[in-house]
From TrEMBL:
Residues 196-350 form the Glycosyl transferase family domain. The lineage of its organism: Bacteria, Pseudomonadati, Pseudomonadota, Betaproteobacteria, Nitrosomonadales. It holds the Pfam family Glycos_transf_1. This is Rhamnosyl/mannosyltransferase. Keywords: Glycosyltransferase, Transferase. It comes from the Bacteria. One of its GO terms (molecular function) is glycosyltransferase activity. InterPro entries: Glyco_trans_1, Glyco_trans_4-like_N. Residues 16-173 form the Glycosyltransferase subfamily 4-like N-terminal domain. The keyword Iron does not apply.
Length: 374
């Protein structure tokens, strides 16, 4: 079975959680006999074809990216049309409005499905203009995948009656064999951490919706290091905030390698995801923490984060925008080893049941077959 996946950007361009989600879907379904190709845009699409372990990646030029919506030229329509004829199933990843234009211009004759990763949250003006095109695109889908039952219920788009009979839920997951199997304690030395020194960890792009300014405020009330790993547009502002508050226990690790990330996940006391806006639709880093058997602290924002991290079972789900609640949750995990271990073990069990590579691959392979058989 040949599946064509569509999204605006992909590796080796700068990574993000959605690109990693696509990579994991391709890896997982490959083990069920699916031949995957990914069509994407890039500001520097040379080489145009990249062979990666999970898929063949075919790229056209991104000429502009207003509101993070990459736009291609005539060549992208030609290339997409050619690939859509090759595929048995076309798999779109939402949101990317330009993909809607590709679809409507080409009208693939094979089954088409969409994984709906997130509502359009910040660009409300774009949402209003885009709504008619979005509805036309969604109505053309054979199936629409929500990444969690929470998001299927709370998204105003997914919960609309016109989609109800086409929405199914397949949680995003990770094949742990795709991660480095070894650690490198050198990153602990670089950050001034002792081998047995407890610390809390955030990993991700430093964006506006991640709630990191609340995490920094909470660090003043936590007697442990708080490691912020990643880079992004909010980085300078966050470092200045920590400096002004005189917080010596907040450490900015910058961009870390995959091996360093694995080391930090294995060694941390807990993973903290303080995202306070619905732009955080799922939180793949929570699945990573679950895979390594770590408790988590996240916020209740009515998205998939509260599906991956279950309050009282795998960690704490706290009110958003509350440094006090963040500090209380971190301190509870800091002082109670038994609690931290229990929550971490439950997180690992939930990973094996819901988020493993085999579970992910089987679910999507079955969906591909179902839409082919219709």
């Amino acid at each position: 079975m040949k599946v064509l996946s569509i999204y605006r950007t992909y590796f080796p361009d700068p990574p993000g959680g959605l690109q990693e989600a696509i990579r994991q879907i391709c890896i997982a379904t490959g083990k069920f006999g699916v031949e995957n190709t990914i069509f994407t845009l890039s500001p520097d699409p040379i080489p145009k074809v990249i062979t990666r372990p999970e898929a063949r990646v075919i790229r056209c030029r991104s000429w502009a990216a207003p509101a993070s919506c990459d736009l291609g030229g005539i060549a992208s329509f030609r290339q997409f049309s050619k690939l859509a004829k090759w595929a048995d199933v076309v798999h779109y990843h939402f949101p990317w409005p330009f993909a809607d234009l590709l679809h409507l211009a080409t009208r693939p004759t094979v089954p088409v499905i969409m994984t709906y990763h997130s509502d359009i949250v910040r660009q409300r003006w774009l949402g209003r203009v885009y709504t008619p095109l979005m509805h036309s695109m969604l109505k053309a889908m054979t199936a629409v995948v929500a990444t969690s039952p929470v998001y299927a219920r709370t998204s105003p788009v997914l919960s609309d009656s016109f989609l109800r009979d086409r929405v199914c839920v397949i949680p995003l997951g990770i094949d742990e064999r795709t991660y480095p199997q070894h650690s490198d304690d050198g990153v602990l030395l670089r950050l001034g951490l002792g081998i047995d020194q407890p610390f809390f960890l955030f990993i991700g792009v430093l964006r506006y919706y991640k709630g990191l300014h609340f995490l920094i405020k909470s660090a003043a009330f936590v007697r442990a290091r708080v490691i912020i790993a990643g880079s992004g547009p909010e980085g300078t502002m966050l470092q200045e905030q920590a400096r002004q508050l005189g917080l010596e226990n907040v450490i900015f690790a910058g961009q870390v390698s995959e091996v360093e990330k694995v080391t930090l996940l294995k060694r941390c006391r807990a993973l903290i995801l303080p995202s306070h806006l619905r732009s955080e639709a799922y939180g793949m880093v929570l699945v990573e923490a679950s895979m390594f058997g770590k408790p988590m602290v996240s916020c209740e924002i009515d998205t998939g984060t509260s599906f991956v991290n279950q309050h009282g079972e795998t960690g704490f789900v706290i009110p958003p925008e509350s440094p006090e609640a963040l500090a209380q949750a971190m301190n509870a995990l800091l002082v109670d080893n038994v609690l931290a271990d229990r929550l971490g073990q439950a997180a690992r069990q939930r990973y094996e049941t819901l988020f493993s590579g085999s579970v992910l691959g089987k679910a999507y392979a079955q969906l591909y077959q179902e839409v082919l058989d219709k």
